[in-house]
Amino acid sequence: MSIISRDFFVKNIIELIIRSETILPVDTVIALEDAWQKESNTVAKSQLSAILKNIEIAREKKYPLCQDTGIFIFNVTIGKNIVIDFNINDAICEALRYVTGTLPLRPNVVHPLTRENSLDNTGDGLPDITFNLTEGSDFEVFVYPKGAGSENMSRLAMLKPSQNEEIKRFVLETVFAAGGMPCPPIIVGVGIGGSFDLAARLSKKAALRPLDEMNDFEQELCDAVNTLGIGAMGLGGDTTALAVHVNIAHCHTASLPVAVNIQCWANRRAHKKFV
């Protein structure tokens, strides 16, 4: 059995959070560079140039990619052969509080009614930590900072079972209504099926997939989104979405939940495999 110490875990989560905030994944950088190369709109091209320069500065200077450093979502996969003698939630919160004060991160977490700020990016229910239990000795942590500009544009609908053809329309209407608010070019995650809450989780997980992995249905949706002409930062152009990803689950015979989760160009995500 593998034993992970708390100090080792906290140190690595600190590094993981910093990496997620300062270094954009390679697949996203490549997608943005491709969008710049193909862009025919001069205004959009200048916006994409600014985004790429922003990415370069953040990486070199170790600055956050965006002033909205987001709220934090963690997915933890842990195998039954891993020995943990500490509270993983508490350890992740300790790491997040440390990075909030040292990178620094903007304190974004508030009470939903009083709006009182916790000042350290933790609070009831946040960070959002999901555990996945597996066989063997896997131990991996995935972190996903999510900004409000894109999150606020996400939507969920409980369609009727006969409304399969409305799924594409709902995705397009969601992106069109969002316009420039989520700082396009965006990544669109779609969750189809499950329950009300499962569809939302599916859509968020879909947005985390590598951008170059689109099947025919996803490519069709992405092409349709890009015909909307919203473009970089909502100023018009050829590329509104870098990718559209869909996750599906079986659902009740009498329902058809569909969720759309939008991610901005700052597609921040990072993972660490401990074992």
TrEMBL record:
- One GO MF term, please? 4 iron, 4 sulfur cluster binding
Please tell me the species this chain comes from: Candidatus Argoarchaeum ethanivorans
Taxonomy, top ranks, is: Archaea, Methanobacteriati, Methanobacteriota, Stenosarchaea group, Methanomicrobia
Q: Which UniProt keywords apply?
A: 4Fe-4S, Iron, Iron-sulfur, Lyase, Metal-binding
Question: Which InterPro entries does the UniProt entry name for this protein?
Answer: Class-I_Fumarase/Tartrate_DH, Fe-S_hydro-lyase_TtdA-typ_cat
Full protein name: Fumarate hydratase (Fumerase)
Q: Which residues form the Fe-S hydro-lyase tartrate dehydratase alpha-type catalytic domain?
A: 12-271
Query: What family does the database annotate?
Result: Belongs to the class-I fumarase family.
Q: Which domain of life is it from?
A: Archaea
